[in-house]
Design goal:
The protein has 530 residues and is α+β, with helices and mostly antiparallel strands. The chain is built from ten helices and 27 strands. The chain is elongated, with a radius of gyration of 34 Å.
């Protein structure tokens, strides 16, 4: 996605543009003015090529955001903001070209088809009064003065978007979209508007406007390339893979199973992470692993944790907090939650129950305020939690009691009950364009497919399906509301989104979602259109 150099064809067009401009200043023949048509055709083709390339980049943003919204979403939003501003200025220039040609040749001129200009059909190519009237005006109140302001605003917007992250691109944008004043044909100081457009024939003005359109698309490409590289700017590059084996337990009894998790871990041998637990910095070996050691002095559950810090490729320091719990006990029943210290009502919660020296086949479990089974419980990544039991609490506010006993050759031993607090499943959040509030551009809003519900940072693999929502929008035409009975936008809702304008609010209400605990009414989404 690096910045592309000009092709030989584009360099040739630029040289022809400069030569013909100089020839005009010398009042050469009409044939020289006619040659501007060839230059404009070349510029028009260059614009088309830039638009095709930029559309491919936007497609890459869409793909990256679909694969990883959290990582690429903000950069896709920034990219489409650039597109919106570039299209606005590009269309304004196209409108000026059409106005000049129709003023000179009439509204029925064959040189204008819709929003397209066919330069080869222009007849009054050497007309030099009308372009100056439109662009300069009688008292320097022509369209060129507003055009200069728009170019400056667009240029500063792009530089602000780069945010100092690409000095080379910033310098190229300043040079390409330069609007500094200069000198006229007589060598006297003159404004950019006079130097660029004053008393030039129609075809020259059209060609200059086309050249500015090329500059706009080129600057758009510069910023898009930079934004796309930011998606992976802070991603780590690992150069070594290690095989990791983590046994469920290093202690097994006859009749029980030895189980271990085996996976590949990636490390960067060029730098070591910093691992801290409280005020203690852990020693780290060559493979990037830290060793934490503490003596168990009393019975009970212990929680510990810390922070792993590593410098990212972009120079920033990425910090990853972690926590872990372990239980210290006598030689007795061990009953420890493997995913959390509470249980959630209405769903299966994983629980690992074992008794040292006793086969799992001889362990009995009873549950108060819930049911139990031996099914596997999945985490949000679709992987099973460690645990040989699944407990489903029934009532919130009443503790679950897990009663464990062993039966060995007819001898039953009962152990003290283990209690767990019961909480309700937290309500899901409705999202549109990845947001539940804040701002969103119209371009991003109309690109959405529907409304979705998520449970952020929840421990279990639960899916909530949107079963309906209403889009509300108000403008000078009145108040409008369109409803859907699924998670997807209806055509009527899409038509309503097309009416969005900057500064208005998009409100989504009556959002319902179905999950394992039934249908829930979700909080509305309120978005400001930017």
């Amino acid at each position: 996605m690096a910045h592309e150099k000009l092709s030989p064809r584009q360099k040739m067009i630029g040289m022809m543009y400069l030569v013909l401009t100089a020839m005009l200043a010398l009042n050469v023949s009409k044939e020289a003015v006619e040659a501007f048509k060839k230059v404009d055709n070349g510029l028009t083709l260059t614009v088309s090529n830039y638009m095709l390339k930029n559309n491919l980049i936007y497609s890459e943003f869409d793909r990256a955001a679909a694969e990883n919204p959290e990582k690429a979403g903000e950069w896709r939003t920034a990219a489409y903001a650039v597109k919106e501003r570039a299209d606005e200025l590009f269309d304004y220039l196209q409108g000026i070209k059409i106005q000049i040609i129709q003023e000179a040749e009439g509204e029925d001129t064959p040189a204008v088809e819709g929003t397209n200009v066919i330069i080869d059909e222009v007849k009054k190519i050497d007309e030099n009064n009308i372009p100056s009237q439109i662009l300069i005006g009688s008292n320097e109140d022509g369209l060129a003065f507003r055009l200069k302001t728009m170019i400056i605003d667009f240029r500063e917007f792009l530089i602000e978007t780069l945010d100092g992250g690409n000095q080379a691109a910033e310098e190229r944008i300043r040079s390409t979209l330069n609007t500094d004043d200069g000198k006229d044909a007589a060598g006297d100081p003159a404004s950019w508007e006079i130097v660029t457009f004053y008393h030039l024939p129609l075809v020259a003005c059209i060609t200059i406007l086309s050249k500015i359109q090329v500059d706009i698309r080129n600057a758009e490409t510069e910023v898009l390339n930079h934004l796309y590289t930011q998606i992976d700017a802070s991603s780590f590059r690992f150069n070594k893979l290690n095989a990791i084996v983590i046994p469920k337990s290093n202690y097994v009894t006859v009749g029980s199973n030895y189980e271990a998790t085996v996976f590949i871990s990636a490390t960067d041998t060029t730098q070591q992470p910093t691992i801290t637990v409280g005020d203690q910095e852990l020693p780290v070996d060559d493979s990037g692993k830290g060793l934490y050691s503490v003596r168990a002095s009393s019975v009970g559950q212990r929680t510990w944790g810390g922070i792993i810090s590593l410098k990212a490729p972009d120079g920033s320091v990425m910090s990853y907090p972690f926590t872990e719990t372990y239980n210290v006990g006598e030689t007795n029943v061990i009953c420890s939650p493997t995913a959390m210290n509470v249980m959630y009502a209405g769903i299966d919660n994983p629980l690992d129950v074992s008794v040292p020296g006793v086969s799992p086949a001889n362990i009995r479990v009873r549950v108060v305020n819930g049911t139990y089974s031996t099914k596997k419980v999945l985490n949000p990544r679709g992987e099973p939690f460690r645990g040989n039991w699944a407990i489903k609490p029934e009532a919130v506010g009443k503790n679950v009691q897990v009663l464990v006993s062993t039966d060995i050759d007819g001898k039953v031993t009962n152990y003290a009950p283990y209690e767990f607090r019961v909480k309700p499943i937290p309500p899901p959040e409705a999202r549109f364009a990845g947001k539940s509030s804040g701002t969103v551009t119209k371009a991003v809003a109309v690109a959405q497919d529907g409304v979705f519900a998520i449970l952020p940072d929840f421990d279990f693999d639960l899916i909530y399906e949107i079963t309906g929502f209403t889009i509300n929008y108000s403008d000078r035409m009145g108040d409008f509301a369109e409803s859907s009975t699924t998670s997807r936008l209806t055509q009527a809702q899409k038509n309503l989104l097309d009416r969005l304008t900057r500064g208005k609010k998009l409100i989504i209400t009556d959002i319902k979602a179905r999950g394992p605990d039934g249908i829930k009414q979700l909080s509305p989404i309120v978005l400001d259109i930017d």
